[in-house]
Amino acid sequence: MHLAQQVKHLIKKEIILEWRSKYALNGVLLYVVSTVFVCFMSFQIIDKITWNALFWIIMLFASINAIAKSFLQESKGRQLYTYTLVSPVALIIAKTIYNSLLMMVLTVIALAFYCLVFEPNKDIDILMYLLAAVLGSLSFSTIFTMVSAIASKTGNGGMLMAILSFPIIIPVLIVLIKFAKNAMDGLDRSVSLDEIGLLALINVMVMTVALLLFPYLWRD
Amino acid sequence: MYKTWWKILAAVLVVYTAIAGLLLGVPRMAILNETIRNLYFHVPMWFAMVVLFTISVFYSVKSLSTQSEADDIRAVESANAGVIFGILGIVTGAVWAKFTWGQFWSFDPKQNFAAISLLLYFAYFVLRNAIDEEQKRAKIAAIYNIFAFPMMVVLLFVLPRLQDSLHPGNGGNPGFNSYDLDSRMRLVFYPACLGWILIGYWVYTLRFRIKTLENKHNTL
């Protein structure tokens, strides 16, 4: 099969599997909603900076939980079967695209709910904030998918996933929080161009490295 | 000693910088005063660290294609030596910060990012310890090392330039080159960098040889 064909089929497979159980979707949504509620109970009123930071912390843990399962929860047998059928490059591309789609949907829903519970800043540039959320979910997906593939090979993936991914995600998170803060304060859009460029650069870099490395990783 | 000339050169250079760095004249600067001499000890640590981490990534790439055990040991031992220099860099920086900025840790972006990039390498060591099987460990650790290296580059060389920092060379401040490095300081600073890089390389080769002997001894 051609690479694009393989990627298409794999994404379709993931979406169908997810749609049957709706495990990740519902699980992570519930996770986000309950976390936001817990925060609401404990904070009551929050200031601007906390509003931004809290959103990204919630999204960070939600996306780790959502994406960790992409490799960790697949049975050995099914993985072997997939490996005999498709090329490793197609597999990592498909997983990354699927995770990005899932995370974008989740992030937008989460952002809407978050704004409902905690009133956002009046000056907020909602389109830019949405762009930050989308770029954020994209970056989380590219990085966590590869780290989850690495962690799944070690046997005790759950804890390693957090240890391995946090130092890698921190630079992305710093840029994201700054970008999101610019959007929240309603600054002029040209101010954030540096951050958008840097995020795009990091994503391209991570994807390239992942594509180069994954073929070595999946062979046991 | 094995291949002596560059080891003698390294020792001579470091002894020279220790003596000349403390005795030769330096420019009189407000705030910095005599602490400017720490430049000869603080900055070369980071150069040595980056060189050692680059060696580590080089051997990780090599070990992926050759699958040789020696390359894997080279990768991990140069990372080990690099971490030692990173810690020394943070400690010398903290002492310098105490006498110029007032606190050991001022939460300056560069301080934070240096600490995070060390976390990346600690995660690398934790990952190694999590896997028992040697060949699998070599492969997966190499993949994580290569995956993490671009992030370290972003953390140490890109992000600090976008933020306000107390360090020279960031947030629009001129780099230390035009800032205070006059010709007298260059006479000490460049030899210091070369000397410490060579010492770092020496530490790494020693660690590599000890580890190889240990492994040989264990298999006998």
From TrEMBL, chain A:
Keywords: Membrane, Transmembrane, Transmembrane helix. It is a multi-pass membrane protein. It comes from the Bacteria. GO terms for cellular component: membrane. It holds the Pfam family CcmB. The chain crosses the membrane at residues 23-43, 49-68, 126-151, 157-177, 198-218. It is found in: Membrane. Coiled coil: none annotated. This is ABC transporter permease. It comes from Pedobacter chitinilyticus.
UniProtKB/TrEMBL annotation, chain B:
InterPro entries: Cyt_c_assembly, Cyt_c_biogenesis_CcmC, Cyt_c_biogenesis_CcsA/CcmC. One of its GO terms (biological process) is cytochrome complex assembly. Residues 11-160 form the Cytochrome c assembly protein domain. It is found in: Membrane. GO terms for molecular function: heme binding; heme transmembrane transporter activity. GO terms for cellular component: plasma membrane. Belongs to the CcmC/CycZ/HelC family. This is Heme exporter protein C. It comes from Pedobacter chitinilyticus.
